[in-house]
Amino acid sequence: ELKVEQNPLFLSMQEGKNYTIYCNYSTTSDRLYWYRQDPGKSLESLFVLLSNGAVKQEGRLMASLDTKARLSTLHITAAVHDLSATYFCAVDMSRNSGGYQKVTFGIGTKLQVIP
Amino acid sequence: EAQVTQNPRYLITVTGKKLTVTCSQNMNHEYMSWYRQDPGLGLRQIYYSMNVEVTDKGDVPEGYKVSRKEKRNFPLILESPSPNQTSLYFCASSRQAGAAPNEQYFGPGTRLTVT
User: Fold this and answer.
1) What are phi and psi of A109, to 5 degrees?
2) Over the stretch B35-60, which tens digit does the pLDDT of each residue have?
3) Torsion sign, CA atoms A59, A61, A62, A63
4) CB A111 within 8 A of CB A18
5) Sequence-separated (6 or more) residues with CB below 8 Å from residue B60
6) Which of B40, B98, B99 comes nearest A107 by C-beta?
7) CB of A17 within 8 Å of any CB in chain B?
C-alpha cells in the first residue's frame, strides 16, 4: 500500500521568510503532484512532476522531485500572506500503460503566513 | 468555461435513504475520480474511471457505487448512506495523454451530512 507523508502538517511563518514542505512516499513512483486548497474551497493544481530531478517554479513556489529518495519538496521563497493555504502532495500508482490509476494524497500541510 | 460541476453542493440526509451526487465535466477528459476529504485524513480516493464503462476501486470504496455511461458524467451513488459517510466529497477529472498523467481538475465539492 502506498503511503504519502507530508511534514510539517502545520506551518506558521512570517512574511519574507523561506521554508520547505517535504513529501515522502513509500513505493516507487515517478509521478507526483502538488495542489493548493484555500479554506472552504476546492483544490487547485500547482505542479506536476513527472521524472527524477524534475524542478518546477511558479512565482514564490518551487517544487522538486527525487524519485530515488522518494521525496518531493515544495520550497517557499519570501513568503507572502496570499500563500496561506493547505498544500497537498499526491502520488499515483500507475503500473500499466495508458495512464495513471490510483492516486494517494498526503494529509496536507496547513501554511499560515503572518504579516 | 472549462469546469467540473457537482450537484448538490450541500446535502443533509438520513441513514439509509439512497442518494446520488452528480459530477460533470466539459473538458472531454478521459479520467474521472471521486474523493472524500475528512479532517486529519486528507483526501482519499473512492473510485476512479479511466474511460467510459471502465471504473475501479480506490482506497475507500465501501458503501459507494459509481457508473460511467457517458464520458462527461461520473455520478457517485450511496445506496444506503450511514453517518460515517458524512464528509466533503470532490469529483475530479483529467485528460490522459498516453502514459503521461496530468493534473486533476477538481469540482467545488459536495458537503454531505448523514444523520
Assistant:
1) -120, 115
2) 999 998 999 999 999 889 989 999 99
3) negative
4) no
5) B36, B44, B45, B46
6) B40
7) no
